[in-house]
Structure formats: C-alpha cells, structure tokens
Amino acid sequence: MSQAQLLIGGERVAGDGAVLEVENPYTEQTIDGVPSASAEQLDAAVAAASEARGTWASTPAVERAEMLHEVAARLRNSTDALAKTMTIEGGKPLVENRDEIGWTAAAFDYYAEVGRDSAGRLIPPIEPTQLALVMKEPMGVVACIVPWNYPLLLLAWKLAPALAAGNTTVCKPSEVTPLATLQALECFDHMPAGVVNVVAGDGAIGAALVADERVDCVAFTGSVATGQKIASVCAQRLARINLELGGKDPFIVCADVASDPAALDVAARGGCGRRT
How far apart are CA 173 and CA 100, in angstroms? Predict the structure, then answer.
C-alpha cells in the first residue's frame, strides 16, 4: 500500500476510499496504489477550508506573501525528488520535470508579490467630498482540479493566486498522476491548518467537490466535456468558475510503429488521452 497521504485540516491522513492504481506510462506497469478520499474525508476537507477562510482572509497580505515565498523555496529544495516522481508517473523526461518544478516555484513567488501589492484601486469620485474605492475581497473556498500532464505547474496556477488573494483551497490532482502532488505536501507544512487541503480521487470525487455548496469557485483544467458539466453545475448555484479547456499539439507517429500492433495501440491511446 502507498505511503502517500492526503492533507485535510492541517493533518496528514490516509485515504479511506478506493485505491487509485498509478501506472508508469513507459513500462505500463502499476507502480503504486493510492487510497482516495472517502465521501466523509472530502466533506472534512471542505469543512476545514470553510472554517479557515475567515482567518486566512484577514491575514495581512505581507504575511501571506512570506508563506508563499516559503512554499517556493521548499519546492526548489525538493526538485530532484519531485522530478523523479513526476517522470515515473507521468512519463515526461526528467529535465522537463525539473523545469516544471522551477516554473511552479516561480508561480508562487510571482503571486506572493501580486497579493502583497494588489488590494484594490482608487477611482474618480463624482463629488469633491467623496472618496471612491474598489476593494478586492476573497471569494472563499476555491476547488483546484488538475490534469495529469503538468501536475504541479497547473496546480500552482490555480493554488498560488487563490492563496495570495486570501482564499482557502481544496485541491484534487489527477487520479493518473497524484504521487508528486501528495509528495509535495511537505512544502505546505508551515501554512495554517485548513488553508490548503489536498484529496486524491477520480471523477466522482471531483464531481462531488464541484457540487458542494460550500465551494465558492472551481478552477479546472481538462477536457471540454468535463468543463461543460462543471459550468452547468456551478451555474445552477451561482459559483464562480475558471476553466482551461482543450488544446492543440502536434502528434507524430513514426513509420516503424505501423509494423508493431502493440506499439501502434500504445500510440493511439496516447493520442486520444493516454489512458482512455
């Protein structure tokens, strides 16, 4: 059984749900089995984020910035270990995964400073005795749902700005590549309990998270079909959404693959989503 644990309310806990089998895409062998969050654990994660939202929102921006810079520093210190895990579970070359750790850390550094500086703006008043301000306030609890291909970078693009703005979070990595995200939880040990919660699970866990009335915003990267479902659910309860859907990339299959049916099958599955 995997040693990977979830992060709920500042505590590391083993998942009580179904086991997610993580496959090495190169060998196509199972390398680990990660227990996902149960319904009760997901409820506890959202409850922890809801409970922490007031305290985190009132934390001075300069203090939030310092904590995000610390996340960036810890990520950089963990580059070798995280990159190896990302290579084993995701299949990209080690050098690219090392780069991803650097980009991820840079995202936390960047949003740390944006959050320190961006609190609102002064707008022209209509009367000489008026002072007109636009104040930025946190939305509340943000769900961050991440795909398999850039597990840490795409998480950072959601998590870092959410935290910098004073929101609390519940994050769900892809069921295909959860290991590096769960391994990176030590980078958040200094954060107040409940501000960052991480649960593992498949689409059912993601759907339950999206439908939870306590979640004020859903940030998602993935397929158009899933994004449409998320948009529909969030529209019904007027939750905010941030969707990054679809994409285009060149996909080249070399001629020698045609003579090997097994290799052709692997290539075909890779072209349509790797594991589908």
Answer: 16
Query: Does the structure show a pLDDT above 80 at 60?
Result: yes
Residue 257 and residue 192 in one domain? no
CB contact set of 232 (below 8 Å; sequence gap of 6+): none
Q: How many CB atoms lie within 10 A of CB 5?
A: 18
CA 245 to chain centre: 15
Please calculate the CA angle 42-245-19 and round it to the nearest 5 degrees. 35
How many domains would you assign to the chain? 2
Q: Is 64 helix (H, G, I), strand (E, B) or coil?
A: helix
Query: Per residue in 220-246, pLDDT tens?
Result: 999 999 999 999 999 999 999 999 998
User: Is residue 130, in this structure, part of any structural domain at all?
Assistant: no
Please check whether residue 195 lies inside any domain of the structure.
yes
Q: How confident is the model at residue 276 (pLDDT cuts 50, 70, 90)?
A: very low
Of residues 227 and 3, more confidently modeled: 227
Q: Which amino acid belongs to residue 207? A: A
Based on the fold, state whether residues 142 and 262 are members of the same structural domain.
no
Same domain, yes or no: 194 and 258: no
Task: Establish if 35 belongs to a structural domain.
Answer: yes
Residue 4 one-letter amino acid: A
Spell out the alpha helix ranges (H) of 19-127: 39-58, 61-77, 79-90, 94-117
The model's pTM:
0.87
What is the C-alpha to C-alpha distance for residues 105 and 63, in angstroms, rounded to an integer? 18
Q: Is the pLDDT of residue 206 over 80?
A: yes
Domain carrying residue 275: 252-276
**Residue 149 and residue 220 share a domain:** yes
Extended strands (E) in 195-247: 196-198, 217-222, 240-245
